[in-house]
């Protein structure tokens, strides 16, 4: 009769595997939490740094706009002062020339009263002195004008707009102090107060009116609406076709685009 085999002793590993799985899961959760916490700190730091840089950029842009406005105001003031000084110099030169003509006029002409030599001499000396002061003021302002012209936009390019490109334009700049005839060399300036009585301006308008394709285009600065209205009314009184283009800023006017169109 065969001997009965004894049962072997078995040990279950399930409890140990369960504990090991729990430990591994706990460690995984701890590592994940630490990684997420570190990522959150970096995101917060990056957001704060971005906000600081953005605020600094906005402050710099605001400061830049203020400086540009101050530069434009300074340029406009210097340009107007220089224009007034030039006009005063031209007026003094005309008066001096008139006095010299009166002084040298023949004495036998009965219609001309005798010239008071002493009075005219004193007046000429006073005007010569004022003319020297005006020239000094012009010499003082010209470097500032050049400096401001380099600092801000050096030129303003006038672009064609609307229909009528086939016309033959004559450009006249409108400033706060008066008109600037850009086609003259050098450009001639005319005060707003002297516009109605200026024979050269009237002759220019008559010449444009006789042209079938003639048109005067007023280039209007930001502060020159009063000058533009007066010039436009005078153009209408001479039956001249007139238009206008706005000029932004105080830079030198560049008409090269129109010149190229006329050559085509």
Protein architecture, described:
- The protein has 264 residues and is of the alpha/beta class.
- The chain has two domains: 28-105 and 117-152; 155-263, no CATH class.
- The chain is 60% helix and 12% strand.
- The protein has five helices and seven strands.
- The chain has helices at residues 14-104, 117-151, 199-210, 225-237, 256-263, and strands at residues 155-157, 168-174, 178-181, 188-191, 214-220, 242-246, 252-254.
- It has a five-stranded mixed beta sheet with strand order 4-3-2-5-6, with helices on one face. Strands 1-7 form a two-stranded parallel sheet.
- Strand 5, helix 4 and strand 6 form a beta-alpha-beta unit.
- Helix 1 (14-104) runs antiparallel to helix 2 (117-151).
- It starts with 13 loop residues before the first helix and ends with a helix.
- The model has no long low-confidence stretch (mean pLDDT 75).
List keywords for this structure.
alpha/beta, 12% strand, 264 residues
Give a short overview.
The protein is of the alpha/beta class.
Layout of secondary structure:
Elements: H1 14-104, H2 117-151, E1 155-157, E2 168-174, E3 178-181, E4 188-191, H3 199-210, E5 214-220, H4 225-237, E6 242-246, E7 252-254, H5 256-263
Parallel strand pairs: 1-7, 2-5, 5-6
Antiparallel strand pairs: 2-3, 3-4
Helix pairs in contact: 1-2
Count of beta strands:
7
Average pLDDT works out at 75
How many domains make up the coordinates?
2
Rounded to an integer in angstroms, the radius of gyration calculated over CA atoms is: 41 Å
**How much helix, percentage-wise, in residues?**
55-70%
Largest sheet: 5 strands, mixed
Low-confidence runs: none
Sketch the topology as an H/E string, one letter per element.
HHEEEEHEHEEH
- Structural class by SSE content: alpha/beta
Task: Give the percentage of residues in beta strands.
Answer: 5-15%
């Amino acid at each position: 009769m065969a001997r009965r085999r004894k049962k072997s002793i078995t040990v279950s590993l399930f409890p140990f595997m369960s504990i090991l799985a729990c430990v591994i899961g706990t460690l995984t959760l701890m590592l994940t939490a630490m990684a997420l916490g570190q990522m959150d700190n970096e995101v917060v730091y990056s957001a704060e740094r971005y906000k600081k840089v953005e605020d600094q950029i906005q402050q710099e842009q605001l400061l830049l706009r203020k400086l540009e406005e101050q530069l434009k105001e300074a340029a406009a003031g210097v340009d107007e002062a220089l224009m007034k000084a030039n006009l005063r110099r031209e007026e003094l030169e005309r008066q001096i020339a008139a006095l010299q003509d009166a002084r040298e006029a023949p004495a036998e002409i009965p219609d001309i009263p005798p010239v008071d030599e002493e009075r005219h001499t004193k007046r000429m000396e006073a005007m010569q002195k004022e003319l020297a002061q005006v020239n000094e003021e012009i010499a003082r302002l010209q470097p500032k004008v050049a400096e401001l012209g380099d600092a801000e936009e050096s030129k303003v390019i006038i672009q064609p707009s609307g229909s009528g490109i086939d016309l033959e334009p004559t450009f006249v700049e409108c400033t706060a102090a008066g008109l600037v005839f850009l086609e003259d060399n050098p450009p001639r300036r005319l005060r707003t107060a002297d516009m109605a009585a200026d024979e050269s301006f009237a002759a220019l308008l008559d010449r444009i009116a006789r042209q079938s394709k003639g048109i005067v285009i007023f280039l209007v600065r930001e502060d020159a609406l009063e000058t533009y209205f007066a010039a436009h009314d005078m153009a209408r009184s001479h039956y001249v076709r007139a238009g206008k283009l706005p000029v932004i800023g105080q830079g030198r006017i560049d008409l090269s685009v129109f010149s190229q169109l006329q050559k085509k």
